[in-house]
Amino acid sequence: GAVVSQHPSRVICKSGTSVKIECRSLDFQATTMFWYRQFPKQSLMLMATSNEGSKATYEQGVEKDKFLINHASLTLSTLTVTSAHPEDSSFYICSALAGGAYGYTFGSGTRLTVV
Amino acid sequence: DAKTTQPPSMDCAEGRAANLPCNHSTISGNEYVYWYRQIHSQGPQYIIHGLKNNETNEMASLIITEDRKSSTLILPHATLRDTAGYYCIAVYNQGGKLIFGQGTELSVKP
Predict the structure, then answer these.
(1) pLDDT: is B9 or B3 the higher one?
(2) Does A110 touch chain B (CB under 8 A)?
(3) Which chain A residues contact residue B57 at CB under 8 A?
(4) Which residues have C-beta within 8 Å of that of residue B46, sequence separation ≥ 6?
(5) Cα dihedral B54→B35→B103→B59 (10° resolution)
(6) Which of A68, A91, A111, B25 could form a disulfide with A38 if both were Cys (CB 3.0 to 4.6 A apart)?
């Protein structure tokens, strides 16, 4: 139980285009989801908290117009990287609070490469 | 959320117990201690969490000091597959944000 599915696992896009990453809770409802990114040999950095039916809350220094988050249902949150540039290349990971014995469950991550 | 401090790296012999320490001296009474691990290029995997009492599950044991200022994650019989980054995080259980510190890179050696 408490599975979070993240797609795609890898994506390569051209500079200036937009990329959408999906995060789904498969067997539980997630009122709140979280989005992280991770650069090589670094820890995970929280980007934003995604709340179902309301606007996301962004961490300081994260551009909300560049990283669009939509949490339209209790099982789906999406992160869209708009007008991607090479410096946006990173590992993006989502998480949801499953609760109980499962704690916070993470997706398998998306490797974004902008060329 | 309380800050946590962990050694950047540790080695452990295969088959031995791996004891990973974490300092969270500013933890508040409502904050839980969560442990996650991350194998390269994968999402973090939940290991265990606790508030005051020691906890054990099929993956590990969590020992929390009486003053709650530090904790130790114990992998009782480390295998090569336990080589990963381990993160200790203090968080309010109901919807609090997981803020990752630098964690400990555990290397299990044959």
Answers:
(1) B9
(2) no
(3) 101
(4) A102, A103, A104, A105, A106, B34, B36
(5) 90
(6) A91
| Cα-only R_g, chain A | 13
According to the model, what pLDDT value does residue A66 have? Answer: 96
Helix, strand, coil: what percent of chain A each, to 5? Answer: 5, 50, 45
What is the residue type of B77?
H
State mean pLDDT over A50-63: 92
**A8 prior amide bond cis, ω within 30:** yes
With CA atoms as reference, report the closest residue to B41 among A77, A40, A79, A86.
A40
The string of pLDDT tens digits covering residues B12-45 is: 999 999 999 999 999 988 899 999 999 988 999 9
Binned at pLDDT 50, 70 and 90, residue A2 comes out as: confident
Residue A102 has pLDDT above 70, yes or no: no
- Contact predicate B5/B23, CB 8 Å: yes
* Structure tokens belonging to residue A108: 């398998």
Alpha-carbon distances, residue A97 vs A23, A30, A112, B12, B58 (angstroms):
13, 6, 24, 31, 21
Q: Which amino acid is it at B78?
A: A
On whether any CB of chain B is under 8 Å from the CB of A54, the answer is no
* pLDDT for A83: 96
